[in-house]
Amino acid sequence: MNSSIVESFSYMVREKGLDKDVLGGIIEEVFGVLVKKQYGQEANFEVVVNMDKGDIEIFLEREIVEEVEDPKTQISIEEVESRGNDEELEVGDDYIEKIDLSSFGRRQINLARQSLNQRIREVEKEIIQKEYAEMLGEIIVGDIYQIRRNDILVNHNKHELVLPRSEQIMRERYRKGDTIRAVIKEIKKTPNGPVIIISRADNIFLKRLFEIEIPEIFDGIIEIKDIAREPGERAKVSVESNDPRIDAVGACVGMKGVRIHAIVRELSNENIDVINYAEDPVVYIQRAIAPAKIKQLEINEEEKTCTVIADNDQVSLLVGRNGVNIRLAMKLTGYQIDIIREEKQFDEYEEDIELVSLKEELGSDVVDILINNRYDTAVEVLSAGLDKLKEIEDFDEAQAEEIFETIKSQFEEEE
């Protein structure tokens, strides 16, 4: 019985990675409780566990007396002599006897087994929690073994990790058996043990990928200052070189983009903009909203707000598809960015359009009326504005608006 108990827990040492001394201490504690139940809280005993030999020995120490008053702590000299002890023991001496586990009864032994199993599970949970606590923020590689509605279970070193839907890249499709890379994001304590949360959507995952693919970042020559990301869609990363001889953006992108492309492929073709960090918020914001060109930028550093004035044709670039460019710029810089759309002044165009060349679009009568009112070119009409056009007696309001829009459209086509 002794060896079978220890052997079952020796298996725990081999398969679960439990420390021998820790397991031995648990066994001693559990069997100590068993001895106290049978011999009382005052019992003087020792539990010896030999994990290598697969043996548990329990030694009970009792005082030798003439007449026993408490059999749990005393033994009579007569009983000692009847046992044929080789040592010459007298009243007042301590008598040490080895207790056979079978004397506790099968029920007590089974309770001990259950208690041991419970303690082992608790220790195993503590080991797992400690192991992954030391790995927080690090990338692991695991295998997908179950896909559920709201999360994915990943096997890593025989441990179950959870990739919640909120930590997945939405456009990715996962399949059972696939190998997956993710970052250890969080360890949640639950009654059933620690739950290890991993992520592919967190900014720290992107940062770790940069460290893996770009040696200068890993070595600390280039520093990642800020990251803004919409997983699977687009990301902006600002970097700064601690060595003036090294171009931070160039090093991150790599020759022909080989370094950044490796990261992009890992993230299911997530578009990544790498920009140079700047202490000056004006410069930093200008870089963050690229590739759009702006006319003016005003900031309020105290309120962390920024107003950007841009021509109408630059606003779409500034905002980006579904607003992603401006959202990421705000996340990256920490500034609320408001956009003021400004129509380009027509007198800024280098080329003009003679009205006589627009007779087909406007009609000869309209062109003659405009010329008679001292408008010879498209720029002159558009610069004067719609209100001035409405003042011409030959045109009603609807005609004036139609003429203005027609000239404007022709002018924009020319542009």
Tell me about this structure.
- With 415 residues, the protein is α/β, with parallel strands linked by helices.
- Helix content is 40%, strand content 25%.
- It has helices at residues 2-16, 20-39, 77-82, 106-133, 203-213, 215-218, 248-253, 258-266, 281-288, 312-319, 324-333, 359-362, 364-372, 378-384, 386-390, 397-414; strands at residues 44-50, 55-65, 74-76, 94-99, 139-147, 151-156, 159-164, 179-188, 195-199, 222-230, 234-241, 271-276, 296-300, 305-311, 336-342.
- Strand 6 and strand 7 (159-164) form a beta hairpin.
- The mean pLDDT is 84.
Summed up:
The protein has helices spanning 2-16, 20-39, 77-82, 106-133, 203-213, 215-218, 248-253, 258-266, 281-288, 312-319, 324-333, 359-362, 364-372, 378-384, 386-390, 397-414, and strands at 44-50, 55-65, 74-76, 94-99, 139-147, 151-156, 159-164, 179-188, 195-199, 222-230, 234-241, 271-276, 296-300, 305-311, 336-342.
